[in-house]
Design brief:
mainly alpha; 0% strand; 434 Repressor (Amino-terminal Domain); elongated; 84 residues
């Protein structure tokens, strides 16, 4: 955000949200919601899907780190021809 000349409090003000919301997103204790994505998309002219996609990618990376190996061991994929 420094690139745009404002910090977290200024970002919160520009997004019209509580500064704690922005701080929690920055810390990683809160994800980007659809509402936040709409606001960020409008502010930075990126569209909401950009921010939701970033959040989804982050969530998937976290889940893969935490559970990926376990899921690989536990779940047998269906055969490519669809037969069981």
């Amino acid at each position: 955000m420094e690139k745009h000349g404002f910090g977290l409090r200024q970002l919160a003000r520009r997004l019209d949200v509580d500064p704690m919301r922005v701080a929690r997103i920055e810390k990683g204790t809160l994800g980007v919601t659809a509402d936040t994505a709409l606001r960020l998309g409008r502010l930075f002219r990126t569209g909401a899907w950009y921010w939701l996609d970033l959040q989804a990618r982050h969530d998937l990376e976290q889940a893969t780190r935490q559970h990926g190996a376990e899921i690989e061991r536990a779940i047998e994929p269906v055969p490519e021809d669809g037969a069981d």
